[in-house]
Amino acid sequence: MKQTIDEWKNKYLRALADYQNLVKRTDGEKQEIRIYATEQFFKKLLPVVDTLELAQHHVQNDGLALALKELHAVLTQYGVEKIEVVGKPFDPHLMECIEVVEGKKDHVVNVLNTGYRMHDKLLRPTKVQVGGGIKEDVCLK
């Protein structure tokens, strides 16, 4: 009788451990899906942000400036941040060289399209102009 009880107890404990592992695994998978969906949404939203910033640059409208400020606050709330690169050495992991121009060799001279990252993961590389040097040495294209 004791042996049968111990067998059933062991089966129960194994089944409980399997169930707990299943719960942990599915929770992790759900979290990964949420993160992926959020990243995809923000990748599609970034061109809209670019357009609004360009419009604000040309129009200088207070209402548009307020809307942009609120939009940037939401981006920040979700961990989306601009990648600041002007004056820094060219980094092919964060930047895409579009053109080599006059300036400090292998350093970013101008940003053509702002790059963003979300929680230290690259959403979109910054498109830049890089100073000096030979085009093939600096640009990856």
What does this structure look like?
The chain has 2 domains: 1-78, GrpE nucleotide exchange factor, coiled-coil domain (Hemagglutinin Ectodomain, Chain B); 80-141, Nucleotide Exchange Factor Grpe, Chain A, domain 2, CATH 2.30.22.10. Strand 4 and strand 5 (121-124) form a beta hairpin. The strands form 2 sheets. It has a 3-stranded antiparallel β-sheet with strand order 1-4-5. Strands 2-6-3 form a 3-stranded mixed β-sheet, with no helix packed on it. Helices cover 55% and strands 23% of the residues. The protein is of the alpha+beta class. It is built from 3 helices and 6 strands; from the N terminus they run H-H-E-E-E-E-E-E-H. Helix 1 (2-59) runs antiparallel to helix 2 (62-77). The model has no long low-confidence stretch (mean pLDDT 92). The N and C termini lie far apart (75 Å). The longest helix is centred in the first third of the chain and has 58 residues, at 2-59.
Mean pLDDT: 92
Q: Largest sheet at a glance?
A: 3 strands, antiparallel
H/E series, N to C? HHEEEEEEH
Question: Helicity level, as a percent range?
Answer: 55-70%
CATH topology group of the largest domain = Hemagglutinin Ectodomain, Chain B
**CATH fourth-tier homologous superfamily of the largest domain:** GrpE nucleotide exchange factor, coiled-coil domain
> What CATH architecture of the largest domain do you see?
Alpha-Beta Complex
Task: Please indicate the percent range of residues in DSSP E strands (runs of 2 or more).
Answer: 15-25%
